[in-house]
Amino acid sequence: MMLLDFAGTVFSQGKSSPRFLVDLEHYDPFIEGPNTLAEPPPHYSPSMLAPKKLHKHNLIMRTTQSTLPQDTGDTSKPWKVKTICDTCHIHIEVQVDSTQGNLVKSAVCPHGEENPLHHLRYDPQKSQSAMLSISGNPRREDIRVFECSANKCPTIVTVIARCPILDKHLVELLINPVVLKQRADAFQPEQKMCEEVPVNRKELTPSLVLSTLNSYLKNALENPENPREIPRGNARYRATLSDECAEIFKLAHFRSDEGAGSFAWLPPPQIELQNVESMVYRDGWDMWEEVKVLYDRHKGSEGEPGFYVYTKKELDKANATKHPLDHVLFVQKKNSRKFFTAINMILYLIGTGISLNQNIRWISYYASLGSIAEFSDLLLLWAFSRQRTCDPDNASYYFECLVEIANGRNSEILQLEVAKLRSQGEFTSMDFLDAARALGIENPNTMDEELVIGIFRARLTDSPRQEAQMREHLSIIGKYRKSHNILQVAQKAFADIRGAYNWLAVSESTEDQLIIAAYQVRIQDSPMDESVAKDALRAIAESRKSHLLLSFIDTGSIYDVPPTLDTAYAVLGIEDRSIDDTLILSLFDLRLSDSPSQFQDLRAALRVIGESRNSVQIKNFLQTGQSDAEKKGSAEWPVGLENIGNTCYLNSLLQFYFTIKPLRDMVLDFDSFQEDEITEEVIQRKRVGGRKVTKKEIERAKKFVYHLRTLFKDLIASNSSSVTPEHELAYLALVSSKDEAERRGSLDTSNGPHLLDLDTPLDDPMDIDPVSDPVSSDKHDLDDNSSETTLVNEPHEPSPCTYSEDTDYVMLSKQKEESKPDGKENMPPIKDLDHPFNSQKDDSTGTAPLTPPPELPPPVPPRPEKTNAGTDINLAFGRQQDVTECIGNVMFQIEAAIKPLRTDDNGEQIDLIKQYFYGTTKQTLAFPDSAETRTKEELFSHLLVNVAEGDRDLYSALDSSFDIEKVDLEGREARRYLSISHLPPILQIQVQRVQFDREKGSAYKSNAHLSFQETIFMDRYMDTEDSALKARREESWGWKEELRALAKRRDELTKTDVSKDISTVLDSTREWLQEIGQVENDMSVGPEVTFALEERANGVKDEISIIEREITKLESRIAQQFTDLRKNAYRIHSVFIHRGSFGHYWIYIYDFRKGVFRKYNDTYVTEVVDVSEVFTHAESSPPTPYFLVFVREDQSLEITESVKRVIVSP
Known about the structure:
Number of helices: 41
Number of strands: 33
Strand content: 5-15%
Shape: globular
């Protein structure tokens, strides 16, 4: 069974959801003692003391602040239950989130027999214990995060506990009779009091004081728009609370107003009271709940109903209609009952046959298994199995727990399972001690390994007939101590190859497949013998030189760490790593014939090389021993493309376009779509990419689509597993008409068509060129259209969503990415498509022209001009092209070759390409001191995201393009932001990986990880008039501004010229001064100096800690701000991957009909077994996503078709 493991952590035990609920009832992180929720229970021993009896919470649900599903098992959104204990007043919030599922984690527990309940494991990396400052008084908040260990369950449970806001002293001010009597004595009414105010001090009861405070808090919290102030001279206030309770009002964030003759408590600010995430909102509601609980306690004792307590009539009614859990949960509180019902709904405890006895005692054996005493035998076995798998280091103790419970229950089912497990090698700690005594070993826990092995061998010499039993004893000791050396000695059951055959119960004539079957049967019957079985199988495989057996062994990963890639090439004697796979296999055979004894080492080296190359040929050889297997096509499988010379990226792009059904159908039926005759009228109206298209370009484009049609037909009909693209197709795709025209004049074309030299390795595939002058751009003129890229006319800073072929790098010194303006097929704004946005071309309330700002930002360093005059255009073809260059050239040529469906007001061609691949962004300029708003719409073919700042998720990267920013326009400050007015059916996202380091004056590739889900939701970026969504965006922008300020301050405290944070520098200075004072007699350093340095260093550390916590909270808020908006859903379709700088491209494409990812790696198309290969990359120099394609979820089957095959026999 696969289980979820936390990154960078060891295995850890967990607990079932019923155990979780039991522990939650005793959870109090603010008192000394064990943390029953997060800490594992201690192992039981007869000498252990009984655990200190813990206070058991009677948790009351705060219904107005809890969000619950209508039905049990609803996981459509995160749910939360907020509670308060009516005894100790601790506040506990339980959040359950099962919404972050993906292709891997897609089934919420309970599901199937293997997952009848959630099994929750504590994640210390995501948990924290924090100190929050409230009016100068510390108030602790404890956060514990748990994740379900089931491999397909995405559920995360978060428990947030806060200590009471009213401490014991403040409570005494409200309920202590002596304090109240003194307050009544001190009250001297200046006028006749209203009827509610007690004139007689004996009537000043706790319930009256609490009722008054309740009314004040209720007024502020339930009426934040128009709360009333509290006059401190008011008779009722002075009689019941007075300024003796001023600290209580301050903790509730009331403000004292003593000016202008008004002497009152002012309620907290309205904006804070309405912000559910604010400290003011939280503290106010917490205090109000505590006051209501105190009121119930005192008023309820008089037989009258309170806020939560049932009256006798209500209790009788409740008992008449019992909840399914009422027989074990004696309910006296309305909201306490609701709390358990809520927990059952979100953690699925109902319907499992589980009884939650609220008086259950903390029994070590049950607690250690993460279970409760009321579990059935089958549920207990499930808990044991899950715990043992999650925490294998303590497997023997979990087995001991199961043994004791089986004996205590006298359960036949459990005892039979215990016997079965013993036969498979399971043992308890008592078995370990018995095994040691049987071998005469004292202190088996601490005795040296060699001494243990020596005693065993001595006993074996004395009693050879007891070898099997003694090996079993030694094996138990080795497993308990996790000693590889002891286990190796215990399990060495054969001395030679004949012994290996005998141990597996096979003969030398047995076929390889039957030997593998015998091996599997042996370890299935006795899993503890697996290591011996592997040794026997390995001995037989090496003796036979069997590729099949060795491949089986390698697949199981049972040997030591494989050699490095450098070592692997050295073992095979390969110096030129560019040789093909066939030659590598020939060298392997040659080395094997020279050194047959090194068969295993040579094979390990070959495996490493094969994996580094993603070579199917080498993989097939390792599995079958055959290197020349015939490659035949399949009617159910896509066809690969041969690499004809650094064309791996083009191959990926062509495979992607082939799976887009409307585009493929159009190309196959090109005769119906093409520009039939290129007349003068066609030339005059033909505008693609904001410019006119020439006759030569149309002819060239038609030629390209003809070749593309030929390729698509081959991909459909070929009976081979791969086809070879035509060289002319590759040339036309990779070399634009402009590049061809610019270079044609310097080439001698009199000798006929170009001869394409596709095997010459040339420029960097990532198009990273050396930069000789990273500042000056005087020699490079800007395109005429560049001033149209933004509303504020910044020609050097295009919109992140605007198509630009020449975007090669971004500046590290700029927050926003900068790029050169497009000089090729750049798209001007198009506003005449068949979309709703056309009805509103300009929302500007003014008529001021869009003029440039007074100062332009510095230009991005230009690409240097190539200085090698002798470079042939054919050599340029051998370069691996930049993603957007190739895509732009291909899209331009397809559009140039086909007839328009119509043209827009600017004469731009509207066609199938624009219908499916282009969307529209809306740029908005708003002026803070004016009602004037300017808008502008632009077409985009892809969105651009940047990873210059390190690892990030896709939403965070997209936010950088759509977040608000301040600009200077016409001498006025304006707020500029981007939204999407129309989304295309096919959404393309380019990942900007080539960066420019201004300090070093060079470009480099960023390998930062960009995480993304298989489904993204674009609602948060849509143009909208919804005021609620606008408010959310504003709130998110505000949080990000806070985040940037915190990050800046953190950098100030942690980054210095000496590469050490300030606290370390201060500590080092203090230590140096102390040492100098001890060595130099004539130099005295006063203690106040070192004390001040220490205090400052500690202050810096505390500030960094606070900043880190605040950053974590803000990042969490930002991440959750839009998770409920899910109307515009897009599913991942294609992921373009690049490895290295002078590296290699391939593509992953999702088949929506089959539900699988395939990897298209030039010639080879293989199914992705583990989808994490597509989404995560953990290597130090990993393959990185370079271009992402999503399709509308509701149109995925209409738009895409990964397999279209009608094989035609030759």
